[in-house]
Write a structure and sequence with these properties.
428 residues, 78% helix, 0% strand
Length: 428
């Protein structure tokens, strides 16, 4: 059963079909081959159940928030401010790529939106300052992954929904790992540019006058972050309501910046509908696939097989990491999470691991998948903005950052308090 399922999955992915279509075809195929009853008759009800959860309303709102920031000019001003403050480091504007991605991640909740926004703003700088294109664009692809780790994160919302884990606790757990990972990315850039100065391009000239003048450009993302996250922990809003407050704050800032008009709103709505439609199709298809797998007995079989293997808790964890690293070569993180998390989380919790900590580990593994060749989503997003050269360049450029992500996984396993310290302090 398992070999047939995996063969069908990889075969459909190899055809280049949309991910939601792959999961739906896989579910229908497995239903036809293995099920003694017509499970497809439940597809309509399951689609409604999977898409009508109140918590999921926050997804289109966070997508809209990112779209507003992209089209309001706030992202461009943020990038300029980051250039002033950290562009003097070895690697220059590549640190601005990471810094701007970190700040944008704290408002958008989406890796793709983060990578796309920073790519658009940073693209003219490559030729202007003579950077190595693979490493420069690789830093954008890697920095974009922070969008699903630093709160507010769509992936953390989905993990909380799938496992009945507190989303505010997951948000708190994502702060320190997110900032630490951004620092590790920057450290990797420094090491590479010290060893090979030609990778870092020409030095960006900055001074304290320019830095101080750029401070107001750092305030809009901070204000939105305070509105979204602060409203949750102040007890004013739920995660869903905080997303709505973030959209209102972004519209106010866009109006203050002189960019709020009918055309801009139409572009925001178009981008929001496209992205939300893609996400919700994946959610519904994956939910139906999970139902079919459970009805077939595959979930029970996997749990039983793992139990009979007699793995230690650490061995179980290494097995899960290996599964995610392999799946990350062929699947997008969102469907990968929806398909695997309901199966794996009970095993991990029974082995004695904290579900909040495991959620952060899963998201870091999903970050790795976002830049893992051959189908890492961020690789294609950045190449789509770049519009020249080969995507192989970007695949080569992300390799140092994949090592940084591997280091982050090791640190999370060795020191779980990296993720758990802040939630425990808040509960305190």
């Amino acid at each position: 059963m398992v070999p047939v399922t995996l063969s069908l999955l990889f075969g459909l992915l190899a055809l280049g079909l949309p991910v939601a279509a792959v999961m739906l075809i896989l579910a229908l195929g497995l239903d036809w081959i293995y099920s003694p009853m017509p499970l497809y008759l439940a597809a309509g009800e399951l689609s409604w159940v999977s898409s009508s959860n109140y918590l999921l309303v926050s997804i289109p709102l966070f997508v809209m928030l990112g779209e507003i920031l992209l089209r309001s000019g706030l992202a461009e001003r943020l990038y300029g401010a980051m250039t002033q403050w950290i562009g003097w480091l070895p690697g220059g504007l590549m640190h601005a790529n990471i810094g701007a991605s970190t700040a944008f991640a704290a408002t958008s909740g989406s890796s793709v939106a983060t990578a796309a926004t920073v790519s658009v703003v940073a693209r003219p700088m490559v030729d202007r300052y003579g950077y190595s294109e693979p490493l420069f664009y690789g830093s954008i692809a890697a920095g974009g992954t922070l969008g699903i780790l630093i709160p507010p994160s769509i992936n953390l919302i989905l993990y909380g929904w799938l496992t009945n884990t507190s989303v505010p606790a997951l948000y708190m757990a994502g702060f320190v790992p997110g900032l630490l990972l951004a620092a590790v990315f920057s450290f990797a850039i420094i090491v590479l540019c010290v060893l090979r100065p030609g990778l870092g391009g020409r030095r960006v000239e900055t001074d304290w006058g320019g830095r101080l003048r750029s401070l107001p450009d750092l305030l809009p993302p901070l204000a939105i972050f305070v509105v979204v996250i602060g409203s949750i922990y102040a007890g004013v809003a739920t995660p869903t309501e905080s997303a709505a407050l973030g959209v209102i704050a972004a519209l106010v800032l866009a109006a203050f910046n002189g960019r709020l008009n009918g055309r801009m709103l139409l572009e925001v709505l178009d981008g929001t509908m496209r992205t939300t439609g893609m996400i919700m199709l994946i959610v519904m298809a994956a939910w139906f696939l999970n139902f079919v797998l459970s009805a077939m007995g595959l979930v029970t079989a996997v749990n039983q097989a793992v139990t009979e293997m007699g793995l230690s808790p650490f061995g179980l964890l290494l097995t899960i990491i290996a599964i995610y690293l392999v799946l990350g070569c062929f699947m997008d993180p969102l469907p990968m999470m929806i398909v695997t998390v309901p199966v794996l989380t009970p095993l991990v919790v029974n082995a004695g691991f904290d579900p909040v900590w495991f959620g952060i580990l899963i998201v870091v593994l999903c970050e790795t998948a976002l830049i893992t060749p051959p189908i890492g989503m961020n690789l294609f997003v950045v190449q789509g903005v770049r519009r020249s050269g080969s995507i192989v360049d970007i695949m080569a450029g992300v390799m140092p950052f994949m090592l940084a992500l591997a280091l982050m996984i090791v640190l999370l396993i060795a020191f779980p308090q990296i993720a758990l310290w802040l939630p425990e302090l808040i509960r305190g």
